[in-house]
Amino acid sequence: MKVTQVAVCPSEASTKAGRPALTPELLAASGARYSRNNEGLEAILSKIDPNHLEKSVDSIFRMVDYGHQSIADMVPVAMFIDGISMWLAYYLWTLSPTAGGQESSTRYIKLAVAGLIPPEILGIPSRDIAEWQALMDACFQAYQSSLKVWEELAAENPGLMGIPQSLLEDTSESAQKKVQRMRRNYAFDRARYFLPVTAATNVMMIMSARGWVQLCQQLLSQPLPEAQRLGELIRGDLEVPAPRMTKHARATEPARQAIAAEFGKLVRMARHESSRGQNSRQAASEAGVPFLSVLPPAGVSEEEIARDLSYHENRYSPVGSSLQRMGVRFGWSAIGFAEIRDLNRHRTGTKYCPQVPKGFYFGFDQIPDMSAACEEKRARLTKLADIGRQSTAKAHQRLAESDPAYVYWTLLGTEYPFEHTTTADKFIYEAELRTGVGAHYRYAKHLRDALALFYQQFPCARGLILEGSAEPE
Fold first, then answer.
1. Which of 50, 63, 224, 332 has the fewest CB atoms in 10 Å of its CB?
2. Residue 337: which domain range?
3. What CATH number does the domain containing 441 carry?
């Protein structure tokens, strides 16, 4: 695990134009000065000693405690985080919904067991390490075997990949490279459900120092050693661009209590399911039943909604105020963690995912009923799915036993409930994005199901919302 803070330096054009360049905290201090006078930027910059920039922070504005936390929002910090588990990467985004950034993608990278996070870092109890390691090895073997199934299926039935025939027949080097990438994506997208969430990934995030401090508070208050270690590393690198903030980047008792309370809810849910004989020991994939409820503004008509969508030319185009004011709560009874990781990163509103394992999805529905060869692949996948169900059952059992490291027994195909509360304009954007060109096939289905419920309530929106077909790119 490694965290590296990356500074932003002036561009050549900025330097040539004579634009000022400030340290992150000095930038915030200068902005804070605006609230105390109206001298303008030049007057503020004239008080900065170029030979003592850090001293100038305090001389311009008493930043020791930053006063209002909004001042810390003006301190931009970028960090690159290498070698954390996929689960912890997901958790980072749940805590940092407004951050910008990227994560290593399972669509483009073939993963191997060598990239597994060591059990000691994850906090797997010593008595369970041998069993856990054996399960992780089996899961990676299932991932490799599943990948082979999908590669064979794509080779035998190229039409399943949705690649245009004209592109398949194009012999140019660029076209063939594009076809090869699409073939890889097709197989990776369907094999990834066997990947353990303990596989290592890399994350880049950029947000304010205030965001990093709040993230550290949550990570350092977690019972999981991996989260605590990451919090310590982030706090150490936060010292470089924002040293005045690090004393606030510590575990807090309210955060500990809130985390413990939420975990207690999950334990009670898992025990209740176990007592009813509905735990995940035999769980196949759940149906993923969608739900959607709306709170439209009073007096808004179908005609007004249609008018507010009439100038919506693409997913980045505006929509009218009737949709911006309409509350929407939508989600699914159970969907794969692979899809939850992506849906969780939408910035708006509040996401809720009680991580009590419900089932295991492994792409079975993607094999067509075409031939004996397809039936043979269906049988191979079904056999491989036993390892996914075993993983789901183990995680459910450990959650019921109050082990916070239970999440590290799960896979990308492990299913949980998921819901998102936002407004209609943001729901529409998400639906258009997640069904558009290059969208993953599974969350495209989930968003189409949610859109169908929206159309039931607002038929006028059908055809005006730019629902895509998730064709490959």
1. 50
2. 283-358+414-461
3. 3.30.1360.170
